[in-house]
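User: quick one
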Amino acid sequence: MRAIITVIGQDRVGIIAGVSGVLAAAKVNILDISQTVLQEYFTMMMLVEISNASIPLEQLQAQLVEEGNRLGVTIKLQHEDVFKSMHRI
Amino acid sequence: MLTSYEVLETFKMIEEEHLDIRTITMGISLRDCSHSDGKIARQKIYDKITRYAENLVAVGEAIQLEYGIPIINKRISVTPLSMIAEASDEEDYVKFAETLDRAADTVGVNFIGGFSALVHKGYTKGDQRLIASIPEALSRTERVCASVNVATTKAGINMDAVAEMGRVIKETAELTKERDAIGCAKLVVFANVPEDNPFMAGAFHGVGEPECVINVGISGPGAVKSALERVRGERFDVLAETVKKTAFKITRMGQLVAQEASRRLGVPFGIIDLSLAPTPAVGDSVARIIEEMGIESCGAPGTTAALALLNDAVKKGGTMASSHVGGLSGAFIPVSEDEGMIAAVEKGSLSLEKLEAMTCVCSVGLDMIVVPGETSAETLAGLIADQAAIGMINNKTTAVRVIPVPGKNVGDWVEFGGLLGSSPVMPISKFSSSDFINRGGRIPAPINSLKN
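Assistant: Done. Structure below.
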């Protein structure tokens, strides 16, 4: 399944490194990545393939939340279809 | 690829604006569970519900995890129980309610709807027994919700049933008085009840429904309010357009979840209910949307027009986003479950009479309204009759969920907890409706042309 990881919060050094570190350890492939500052939010968006992840989804989400806490940002992983269904007809 | 703006918008709707799926409700037909022996019927009911809904909660949780959208409730609705239980000779249907309660507990859902009867034209013996059993059934169960349909546009209003429901509400309040009459929060009296409503307490699985079905209720008053904050001061055209667009997005999410739940459970998808369902949480209120439109406090003149615009725009946007729309599909205005409504009642800007006017332009009627415990059964019946008349004449669903809390008076505060919220006791007319209610009989069905 393809998922979108949203990272939102204050910009700082090491956000991409931190998040991609967690993903690499879990064998999650990053397909696309973009970041911008939008409406005062630092917003990073990653499209990832998690079908071959080495850990269950629940655990991966927990690890991302933990990494988010360490970096002081909010991290959320959701199925890609959530965004597609809302914004694409 | 999606844009950052789109991703951020969805993120904020869920994280900050309380967008959620309010309920995934599995409708289950119990029509093959009738039996002349009540004990056997109850065993069949229990077995069927627990078999069909075995994975409902697990699937709901899995979807929540993968899609990152909260799914607040997983629930069950069943065929109106009066139709199933009346094959038996038993007079008391409380045991049937207890069976529903036990089945709901086993599969882990918080409410099960369908302790219901449809009596808009008259009673069968099963209807009579079920309605007589409601007060005790609601006092002896936790999860069971009851509903009675007393009127339709085609059949008129069964005033005998209206009068009886006034008494049933009083009795239910009395039997659950140590918990602020919470039994009444699980009892809805309807006109033109929909057969596919996923929302409690009025859900049941209608006779025209399939064997088993998945209906989904969306939410999202917070998301609508935030969207309107961005168009402050704009003309009504812009306002309506903004509500439509937001409703479209919210409903697409509901459609996605409904289809996924339907696929995983191997059960057909029924409908999306487009209602804006508030919760007592700050930022999840329908009253605050009305205020955002420019009404100082919900209930002030203009409120009904604001609600009409909101309700209609939600339907227009939502209908485009879903393959099948049904249920109640309108903005809910339950007083105790809406933080802004509660505040408006406390401030004195929102009265029972204004709420009644508001029910003319939105479902679902006088909902979660706390009145003094000394309110008579006839006055409650008068309230029900008025709502039924609004529904009957206007071809729409209306309902009454009113709670006369024994020992409480105007100014007192009542706390139900959880999604049922809390509310001040509202004043209700002290003038009598007894002679009107005690006439009995039926109010004839209205003419549906010559409309003025």
